[in-house]
Design the sequence.
């Protein structure tokens, strides 16, 4: 069914046609989630002084461009800056006439032109002022912040978002480098992780249900089949058939270790007819090739077991999210059957089409029965919990059952920073990374130093203005940050690492904190990609920091 | 002031060379739009942009230079216009044209510092690759699929070219599978799209690329029958806009044709024969179905629904064709409708008729959404991947401008894995590459005067020192050899040789030279008295072909099925090394076992023995 788009009178809507190429990636449900999303971009936090207008915010605007095009519901740009000549050199979404006008207003206007389906708003203010209205932040599904942002603004903003369960992306693009981090809610569940199709096959050959057993039993004498029939028995049925034979001669046990499985494979291979003109049979080749992968007892992946063991799954309440109610029902299913609901899809195989379709039906029917059982448990839980929310849609339960073996819960972390109240594990990870050759972590550290330098300039009440390239500022903040990275055993950051951090800092200072359009555009692609994953709740989002080095065309991910 | 951030980060020298550069951007699609923006804002001085396509609604989710009001207009021209509006100081040139046209010849390619490929099809990619190799211009090649992307720097003689690795070609199906004996849903979809739709509304003489209709003795009669069948269908075109057209088409393709197939009992010995559908029943069912059913593209329609969409879309297409015929000017070709995955009427028609046929042949029915993917060869595409890929293209081009090819990389984007962006060093050219290992010489001709004899005698024999025993080919067409010299007096121009044409020269002598490609440049000014009508532009050294390999030891021929030696054996290790050395992934098969066996022959120089063994296959590659 087309859930997302009501059937129009003339074929698919123009919206469906416009979004056709991306619907192939996240389907109607993902598109609906996007269209229900309003995104906040905090694109600067005011000027750095009299002469420096502060963050140019190109990466922020480019990120938004990549979200407006695929059709988010709307966006709001918060940016107190006025368009300057240097903005025009790097920002595509400003025109000559924009000079001297509000940057929020101008970028909003030009971004809106990209997609008439998307609403755009702007505020020529600092975000601090807007946060005084408690209704402001909850209107948004995602917050994107262009750094550097002074801590006195960043911390309250990210904390409030965390309390509201709103994900945050904090990004920097300076010279040839960019970094960004994702702050997700404490638990961020994903059902549609889109695993590699190869890994999702679940054929249940070692614990077939009665209908599948019956289909295989129908084969009992392969020798009576003519060559054509023999060469078209679906390999699944061949394996089930030969497994029975194997069990007879092995005290009822299926092949369980590598040696037995290879023996079994050779046994299957030896049963192929070679007297035909082809000198072999494709279906037997397929069967032999599938032995090692499919003759494996079902086992619950540890990541799924962990989800079952989480408090949210064990202790449901009336306010539990749909995800946890379904997860709990699946857990019950697993407890009583020892397996997860059958996904129900069948790989391609050599077979007569009618046979293939009937085998497909056996799998589909079983999958449907499993969904029905889980649905019944869900309905039972819903009434038991006396939930006030609308009933969980049948479709969600079905999708969950299909993906049950690959669901994921990301445990959200704060935007990482190197400070006195940093998480000890964050500092430890950074220290360890510093020992890795060619690591990009020095770029992350340099960005942290830049953050503190800018923070000090912005917060300072001093009369004379200091530049972003001020030696004294960089030296003092570099030493401060390096001191924070001192190991628990008192070991300081080594010379080699210090030199790497200094090199990265040099690039940031050379750029004077400014952006290169090309790097910011690329970064806008990277950041928007994560935003799309977060908004559609599909695929696995970044956990939690990405560093990009444009000089080496290379990126790395870190969990900080 | 505007450029200050660029100057700070790129340095004065690089900024200047970008400003003075002249680059070509081939393709103004997803990557192209992003690239144009990035090139302009990175300070590239002069950008030429070429694209053959016009803007479609389904482009707007990513090709951000285009708006709704631009639909059906030229991508290249609109991209230029919009980018120019944002950047009035950039020098932009746009061509709404095919990059494969002869006007874009080698000397035109030579006028650029770098070429960026942002194309969506292999044929054009290969063409630009070849032209850049001949013109010796660095090429930044790129492409995306969904979340994945790739950027590759190509420089003649230094790196791999686009064709150094064999590219997967689209699948084709035998004509009889499509027309008589479908075994999978895709066969019915191809039938509906490439046979039924063109026969009724299109240009049925066009060969569909996915149908392989090469005749052999086995299917010659079958093909004759199919021709007759098609003729009957063509007659139906006369009455396509009448009320009962759908009934006539149904009776023909789902009735009469199926009955004929049922009669071919050989086909149905081992499988269920096709079954006829009950027209009256379908008509009855479809009466209660609203035409809005075709909007439900995610679920599989019932047979009645498919029939209803078939009838409805046939009427829609017939009306459109009639309208086109009525408004056609006398000197225009008669109008046709062709399949376009984004054209709802054609997609509805293909979905419904493919499904009706699938039901007849006991195959699985498909949803419209799936049919669109299968028939349209749709590649998922989003803005984010394009943004990243285009950014990486520019970064790689900076290495080229800095003359720092060693630092340039092959870059990949991937959704999974620890890195979103990963890079690899560029590889040296593949010595067996059918494209970049070829020798190319430019020859200038006077189109008014130059004959084949001028080329053969003056250029090849006198200037390049070829003997008499050579043959010349244009593409696959032989135009000259020692026995076939009738064409010598013909003008090259009359033989279809234009500016930019390639002619392959094969040396048929005992100790032969490698094949040579002559690329033609036409003289723009008439030749002076003393200049010859055809002249060599650049002298080249033409190496000899490697000597034919000695026959491998004979004992492996006696034991062709000899199994591979156990893995502890030394020879198996050697055999493995050899396999890694070959480019294609060869499936383990008996031939492989043979190669292993021959490698196991004791030899004081193991590696040499292996090379010899491989020659047999290598020779085929070089010689084609
Ligand atoms: Zn090559």
Sequence:
């Amino acid at each position: 069914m087309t859930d997302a788009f009501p059937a129009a009178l003339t074929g698919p809507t123009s919206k469906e046609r416009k979004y056709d190429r991306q619907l192939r990636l996240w389907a109607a449900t993902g598109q609906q989630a996007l269209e229900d999303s309003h995104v906040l971009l905090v694109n600067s936090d005011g000027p750095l002084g009299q002469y420096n207008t502060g963050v140019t915010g190109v990466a922020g605007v480019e990120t938004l461009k990549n979200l407006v095009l695929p059709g988010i519901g709307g966006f709001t740009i918060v940016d107190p800056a006025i368009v300057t000549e240097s903005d025009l050199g790097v920002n595509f979404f400003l025109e000559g006439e924009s000079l001297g006008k509000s940057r929020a207003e101008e970028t909003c206007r030009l971004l809106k032109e990209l997609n008439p389906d998307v609403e755009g708003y702007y505020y020529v203010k600092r975000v601090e002022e807007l946060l005084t209205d408690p209704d402001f932040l909850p209107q948004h599904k995602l917050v994107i912040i262009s750094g550097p942002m002074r801590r006195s603004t960043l911390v309250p903003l990210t904390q409030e978002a965390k309390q509201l369960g709103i994900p945050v992306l904090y990004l920097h693009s300076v010279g040839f480098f960019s970094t960004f981090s994702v702050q997700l809610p404490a638990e961020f569940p994903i059902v549609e992780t889109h695993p590699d199709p190869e890994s999702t096959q679940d054929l249940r050959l070692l614990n077939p249900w009665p209908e599948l057993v019956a289909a295989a039993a129908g084969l009992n004498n392969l020798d009576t089949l003519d060559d054509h029939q023999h060469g078209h028995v679906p390999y699944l049925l061949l394996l089930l058939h030969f497994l029975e034979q194997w069990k007879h001669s092995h005290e009822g046990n299926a092949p369980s270790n590598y040696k037995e499985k290879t023996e079994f494979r050779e046994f299957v291979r030896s049963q192929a007819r070679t007297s035909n003109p082809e000198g072999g049979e494709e279906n037997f080749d397929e069967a032999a090739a599938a032995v090692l992968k499919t003759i494996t007892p079902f086992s619950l992946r540890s990541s799924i077991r962990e989800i079952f063991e989480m408090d949210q799954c064990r202790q449901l309440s009336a306010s539990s999210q749909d995800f946890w109610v379904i997860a709990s029902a699946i857990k019950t299913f697993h407890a009583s059957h020892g397996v997860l609901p059958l996904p129900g899809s069948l790989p391609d195989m050599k077979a007569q089409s009618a046979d293939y379709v009937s085998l497909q039906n056996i799998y589909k029917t079983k999958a449907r029965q499993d969904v029905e059982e889980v649905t019944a448990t869900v309905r039972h839980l819903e009434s038991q919990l006396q939930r006030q929310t609308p009933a969980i849609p049948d479709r969600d339960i079905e999708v969950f059952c299909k993906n049950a073996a690959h669901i994921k819960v990301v445990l959200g972390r704060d935007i990482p920073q190197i400070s006195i109240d940093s998480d000890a594990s964050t500092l430890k990870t950074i220290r360890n990374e510093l020992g890795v050759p060619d690591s990009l972590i020095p770029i992350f550290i340099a960005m942290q130093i830049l953050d503190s330098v800018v923070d000090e300039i912005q917060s300072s009440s001093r009369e004379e203005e200091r530049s972003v390239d001020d030696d004294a500022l960089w030296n003092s903040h570099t030493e401060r940050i390096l001191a924070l990275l001192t190991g628990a055993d008192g070991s300081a950051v080594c010379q080699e690492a210090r030199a790497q951090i200094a090199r990265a800092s040099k690039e940031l200072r050379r750029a004077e904190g400014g952006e290169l359009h090309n790097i910011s555009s690329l970064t806008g692609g990277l950041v928007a990609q994560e935003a799309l994953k977060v908004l559609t709740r599909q695929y696995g989002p970044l956990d939690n920091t990405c560093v990009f080095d444009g000089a080496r065309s290379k990126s790395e991910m870190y969990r900080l | 002031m505007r450029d200050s951030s660029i100057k700070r980060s790129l340095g004065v020298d690089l900024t200047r060379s970008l400003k003075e550069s002249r680059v070509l951007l081939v393709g103004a699609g997803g990557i192209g739009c992003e690239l144009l923006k990035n090139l302009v804002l990175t300070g590239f001085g002069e950008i030429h942009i070429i694209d053959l396509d016009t803007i479609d609604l389904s482009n707007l989710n990513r090709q951000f230079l285009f708006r709704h009001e631009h639909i059906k207009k030229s991508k290249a021209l609109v991209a230029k216009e919009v980018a120019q509006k944002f950047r009035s100081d950039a020098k932009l040139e746009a061509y709404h044209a095919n990059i494969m046209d002869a006007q874009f010849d080698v000397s035109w390619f030579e006028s650029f510092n770098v070429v960026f490929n942002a194309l969506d099809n292999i044929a054009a990619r290969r063409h630009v690759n070849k032209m850049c190799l001949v013109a010796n211009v660095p090429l930044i090649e790129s492409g995306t699929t969904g979340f994945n992307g790739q950027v590759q720097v190509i420089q003649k003689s230094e790196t791999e070219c686009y064709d150094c690795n064999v590219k997967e070609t689209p699948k084709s199906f035998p004509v009889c599978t499509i027309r008589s004996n479908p075994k999978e849903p895709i066969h019915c979809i191809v039938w509906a799209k490439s046979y039924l739709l063109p026969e009724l509304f299109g240009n049925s003489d066009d060969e569909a690329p996915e149908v392989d209709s090469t005749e052999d003795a086995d299917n010659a009669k079958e093909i004759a029958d199919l021709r007759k069948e098609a003729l009957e269908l063509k007659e139906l075109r006369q009455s396509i806009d009448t009320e009962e057209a759908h009934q006539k088409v149904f009776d023909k393709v789902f009735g009469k044709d199926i009955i004929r197939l049922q009669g071919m009992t050989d086909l149905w010995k081992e499988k269920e024969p096709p079954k006829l559908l009950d027209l009256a029943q379908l008509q009855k069912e479809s009466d209660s179905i609203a035409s809005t059913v075709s909007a439900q593209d995610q679920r599989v329609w019932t047979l009645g629904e498919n029939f209803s969409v078939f009838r409805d879309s046939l009427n829609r297409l017939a009306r459109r064709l009639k309208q086109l015929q009525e408004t056609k000017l006398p000197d225009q070709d008669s109008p046709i409708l062709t399949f376009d995955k984004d054209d709802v009427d054609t997609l509805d028609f293909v979905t419904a008729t493919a499904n009706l046929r699938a039901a007849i042949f006991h195959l699985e029915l498909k949803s419209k959404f799936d049919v669109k993917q299968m028939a349209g060869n749709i590649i998922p595409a989003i803005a984010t991947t394009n943004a990243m890929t285009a950014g990486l293209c520019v970064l790689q081009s900076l290495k080229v401008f800095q003359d720092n090819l060693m630092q340039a990389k092959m870059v990949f984007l991937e959704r999974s894995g620890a890195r979103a962006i990963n890079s690899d060093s560029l590889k040296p050219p593949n010595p067996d590459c059918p494209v970049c290992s070829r020798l190319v010489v430019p020859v200038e001709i006077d189109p008014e005067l130059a004959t084949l004899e001028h080329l053969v005698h003056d250029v090849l024999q006198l200037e390049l020192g070829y003997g008499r025993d050579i043959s010349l080919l244009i593409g696959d067409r032989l135009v000259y050899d020692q026995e076939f010299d009738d064409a010598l007096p013909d003008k090259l121009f009359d033989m279809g040789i234009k500016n930019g044409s390639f002619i392959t020269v094969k040396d048929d002598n005992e100790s032969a030279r490698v094949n040579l490609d002559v690329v033609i440049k036409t003289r723009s000014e008439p030749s002076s008295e003393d200049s010859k009508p055809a002249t060599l532009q650049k002298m080249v050294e033409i190496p000899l072909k490697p000597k034919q390999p000695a026959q491998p030891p004979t004992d492996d021929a006696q034991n062709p099925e000899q199994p591979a030696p156990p893995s502890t054996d030394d020879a198996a290790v050697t055999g493995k090394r050899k396999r890694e050395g070959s480019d294609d992934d060869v499936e383990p098969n008996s031939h492989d076992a043979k190669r292993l066996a021959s490698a196991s022959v004791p030899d004081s120089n193991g590696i040499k023995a292996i090379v010899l063994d491989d020659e047999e296959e290598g020779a085929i590659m070089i010689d084609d």
Observations:
- Chain A touches chain B through 83 residues (CB under 8 Å).
- Residues 203-297 of chain A form one domain.
- The two ends of chain A are 42 Å apart (CA to CA).
- The longest strand of chain A covers residues 168-174.
